[in-house]
């Protein structure tokens, strides 16, 4: 069974999300009660879950956002919640309040486009609805389908990624064992399950059972400043028993070079050279420029220096933004300074094991920098399409024709 970040109960229309701020120290699920905060009411909303990084990963953000719409509507329409400011007696006013709430939700994480794409489809359903009952039922069905489709997409991305990778290996005449590298977390926790870039890695691991040419090792970048690589990807890879090593983001060139030159004196975890760098995406625009977690762009630059390494972006088509032409048009989210200067983790005892308190592993926040300093903290960067060898979606793997990507 793979890890579940999102638990939606279709019958009761309730949503619980894994608190990813506590992973891997603790497994805590939080109930989401509404779309966005409402003044004077103590509730945990989809907006807060997304903005506060309790839920992260572009597809997971979309799903939690869309489910939170259904949860709020269920509370208003079926449980007589009156404090959310809806006029249930007037359809036009009801719709207008709902659209306002969705507009707030969309602001929670600006770079990832999946939530916007999902909300735009919800807006169309709302526009077309002729009663609050049909509006609710249609949005519920839509959100459930979105979740199921995302899971199917991830498995298809895995299969299409494997197809691309083996076609490249065959073209090159490469045989034997190889390694791959990834950044951030793009697995079960960032999606409905299975994952995008990490889905391809999962599929490669399965493929390794019956192939002589196979993935032998994964290098996971820790992904500063928020460490989704060391906290989440390392957790998923360990859980799935996929051989891997964690590296810091600034070890990449030395590692790639050491493996390419087979430097036996560098205590390398595996002799298998890196053949593929596989990353997720938060937004891919029409020309193939790809926004992903900060640090992705430099991986593509390093890959471009080694003809034997292919750089792959993996994402469902819900991550494609057909309204923007180039990466220059992507808004890059700036995150709070404290995400770079402070870190929270589990307390470790003298024996190297986590110290447990009454509520699981004891957690502590520490500062790693002087207090009050200036910080630049863009959460994402943009990798230009010319540095990307393939973009894998659930439909197929796309490669460039005359230097350009065409998705439609
Ligand atoms: C399949 S997840 C896509 C994407 O989400 C991550 O961002 P964040 O952890 O800030 O939500 C990361 O950039 C992943 O590649």
UniProtKB/TrEMBL annotation:
It is found in: Cytoplasm; Nucleus. One of its GO terms (molecular function) is S-methyl-5-thioribose-1-phosphate isomerase activity. It catalyses: 5-(methylsulfanyl)-alpha-D-ribose 1-phosphate = 5-(methylsulfanyl)-D-ribulose 1-phosphate. Pathway: Amino-acid biosynthesis; L-methionine biosynthesis via salvage pathway; L-methionine from S-methyl-5-thio-alpha-D-ribose 1-phosphate: step 1/6. GO terms for cellular component: cytoplasm; nucleus. Belongs to the eIF-2B alpha/beta/delta subunits family. MtnA subfamily. This is Methylthioribose-1-phosphate isomerase. The gene is MRI1.
């Amino acid at each position: 069974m793979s890890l579940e970040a999102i638990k939606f109960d279709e019958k009761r229309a309730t949503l619980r999300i894994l608190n990813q701020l506590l992973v891997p120290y603790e497994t805590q699920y939080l109930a989401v009660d509404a779309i966005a905060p409402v003044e004077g009411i103590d509730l945990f909303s989809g907006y807060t879950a997304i903005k506060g990084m309790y839920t992260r990963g572009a597809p997971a953000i979309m799903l939690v956002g869309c489910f939170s719409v259904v949860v709020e509507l269920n509370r208003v329409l079926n449980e007589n919640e009156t404090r959310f400011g809806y006029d249930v007696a007037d359809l036009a006013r009801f719709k207008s309040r709902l659209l306002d709430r969705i507009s707030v939700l969309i602001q929670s994480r600006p770079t990832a486009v999946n939530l916007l794409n999902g909300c735009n489809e919800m807006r169309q359903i709302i526009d077309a609805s002729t009663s609050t009952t049909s509006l609710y039922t249609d949005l519920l069905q839509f959100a459930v389908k979105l979740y199921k489709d995302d899971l199917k997409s991830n498995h298809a991305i895995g299969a299409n990624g494997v197809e691309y990778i083996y076609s490249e290996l065959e073209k090159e005449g490469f045989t034997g064992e190889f390694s791959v590298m990834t950044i951030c977390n793009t697995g079960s926790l960032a999606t409905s399950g299975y994952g995008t870039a990490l889905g391809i890695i999962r599929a490669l691991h399965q493929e390794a059972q019956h192939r002589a040419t196979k993935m032998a090792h994964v290098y996971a970048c820790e992904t500063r400043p928020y460490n989704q690589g060391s906290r989440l990807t390392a957790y998923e890879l360990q859980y799935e028993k996929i051989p891997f090593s964690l590296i810091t983001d600034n070890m990449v060139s030395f590692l790639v070079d050491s493996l390419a030159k087979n430097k036996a004196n560098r205590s390398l975890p595996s002799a298998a050279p890196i053949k593929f760098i596989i990353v997720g995406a938060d937004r891919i625009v029409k020309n193939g420029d790809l926004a992903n977690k900060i640090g992705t762009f430099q991986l593509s630059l390093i890959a471009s220096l080694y003809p034997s390494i292919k750089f792959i972006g993996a994402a469902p088509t819900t991550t494609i933004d057909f309204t923007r032409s180039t990466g220059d048009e992507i808004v890059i989210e700036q995150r709070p300074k404290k995400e770079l200067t402070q870190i929270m983790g589990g307390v470790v005892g003298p024996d190297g094991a986590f110290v447990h308190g009454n509520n699981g592993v004891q957690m502590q926040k520490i500062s790693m920098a002087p207090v009050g300093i200036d910080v630049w903290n863009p959460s994402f960067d943009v990798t230009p399409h010319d540095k990307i060898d393939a973009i894998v979606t659930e439909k197929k793997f796309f490669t460039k024709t005359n230097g350009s990507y065409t998705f439609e």
